[in-house]
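We examine the record.

___
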Amino acid sequence: MTKKYEFTGETKIVGGVTLKRIRALVAIMVSGVAAGDLGGWIETESNLSQVYGNAWVYGNARVYGDARVYGDARVYGDARVYGNAWVYGDARVYGDARVYGDARVYGNAWVYGNAWVYGDAWVYGNARVSIRIIIGTRSDGYTFLATPAKSGPPVIIAGCRYFTISEARKHWQDTRGGTPLGDESLALVDHLERMAKIQGWIK
């Protein structure tokens, strides 16, 4: 198997951990990386899959499959990023978090603790996800997330909107009622509510 990268000899110490910078030895077309481009910073070779830009991957974290970590992103602890997932911008993925499938974590978002972000889910902006979420995706790719609230009923996140379950039903009935996408949306809300009950988020 062709080696994709080499260590440049540059190092930095972060929190007592020595990170080493990598350089691409071959072009990685899907990532827009040319041979000779400087990559990100990793602690050991086992951290690496596609890490470039100013990104850091360290600790027991793993990036593998066709996943990409770039920009100023940080992946550490026991986190896993895999599948076709992307983590970029100033995003942080750490703890026992998992980001996989076609998920995207970017901006200033943090995914940590026992959170799993997967499927077609996007977590971005200043979002903080620290526990597992339930995901449902409509046929047009629009993703619905359900997560427990600190107090009160679970929250459904769809795009940039946050709803309670009853608010979500009313919204899609009012805006898409009687259409195929409206029927799908309401079915997904029903599914998320049932799953939230199974998880114990609804008493």
Observations:
- The radius of gyration is 19 Å.
